């Protein structure tokens, strides 16, 4: 099966002469200041309780990550929630931040592109397809292609391959930080996250994410029909597991 979005990217970017060094994909994901997953804790035999220092802080920092089809990545943009120290009142990206990201992207890739057009694949968030964003992209000689709704889980390399590895490593780094220093603060986030992404985003990981989505190397059959199929029901029980009182039974 040839997925139509892969074909659009190929025709809009690759056939336009944009080589892997000038082909980029951007996506955002949230990272908590504390660890928000489950873990197995091993303690002394016979102990009634086992304690581990940690934090209940679940505040989210949004990170905009950009990868290149040549196996490299750009310094991420961090969006903190707040009004003074932070740059987003909600903690998520908005139109002003999107324009700031595009200016930063242009500065980071201009020399590498050598004056040639760059391709940037983004999600279809309103701020990424707004007229102001697209006008600025044209001014910077950047061609923007947006993923269709509800397809980033199969078409966006960061979602498909990179973010899962990054969040696993993030949990490890946060636990180690909390063990040594106590709860993480906003001021600590940048150092720990930069250490995490540097250790995680190897050229092999990034290249595999492009390959899995069929964008580079171009493979129109990489996204199969089963990956886009609706979720199947898991339950095979047609009745309640135990008898229910009336009027349910009736």
TrEMBL record:
Pfam families recorded: DDE_1
Origin superkingdom: Eukaryota
DDE-1 domain mapped to chain residues: 68-171
GO CC list: nucleus
Family annotation (InterPro entries): CenT-Element_Derived (IPR050863), DDE_SF_endonuclease_dom (IPR004875)
Listed GO MF terms: DNA binding
PANTHER family with a match to the protein in the record: POGO TRANSPOSABLE ELEMENT WITH KRAB DOMAIN (PTHR19303:SF74), TRANSPOSON (PTHR19303)
Protein name: DDE-1 domain-containing protein
Organism: Auricularia subglabra (strain TFB-10046 / SS5)
């Amino acid at each position: 099966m040839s997925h139509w979005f892969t074909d659009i990217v190929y025709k809009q970017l690759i056939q336009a002469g944009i080589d892997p060094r000038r082909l980029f994909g951007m996506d955002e994901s949230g990272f908590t200041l504390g660890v928000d997953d489950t873990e197995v804790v091993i303690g002394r035999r016979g102990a009634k309780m086992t304690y581990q220092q940690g934090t209940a802080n679940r505040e989210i920092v949004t990170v905009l990550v950009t990868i290149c089809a040549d196996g490299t990545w750009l310094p991420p943009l961090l969006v903190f929630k707040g009004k003074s120290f932070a740059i987003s009142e909600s903690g998520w990206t908005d139109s002003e931040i999107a324009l700031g990201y595009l200016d930063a992207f242009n500065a980071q890739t201009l020399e590498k592109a050598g004056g040639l057009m760059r391709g940037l694949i983004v999600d279809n968030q309103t701020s990424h397809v707004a007229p102001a964003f697209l006008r600025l992209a044209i001014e910077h000689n950047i061609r923007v292609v947006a993923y269709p709704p509800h397809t980033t889980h199969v078409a966006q390399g960061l979602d498909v391959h990179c973010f899962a590895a990054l969040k696993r490593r993030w949990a490890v780094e946060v636990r180690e930080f909390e063990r040594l220093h106590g709860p993480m603060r906003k001021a600590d986030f940048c150092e720990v996250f930069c250490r995490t992404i540097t250790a995680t985003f190897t050229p092999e990981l990034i290249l595999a994410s492009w390959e899995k989505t069929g964008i580079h190397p171009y493979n129109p059959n990489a996204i199969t029909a089963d990956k886009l199929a609706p979720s199947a029901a898991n339950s095979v029980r047609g009745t309640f597991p135990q008898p229910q009182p009336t009027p349910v039974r009736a």
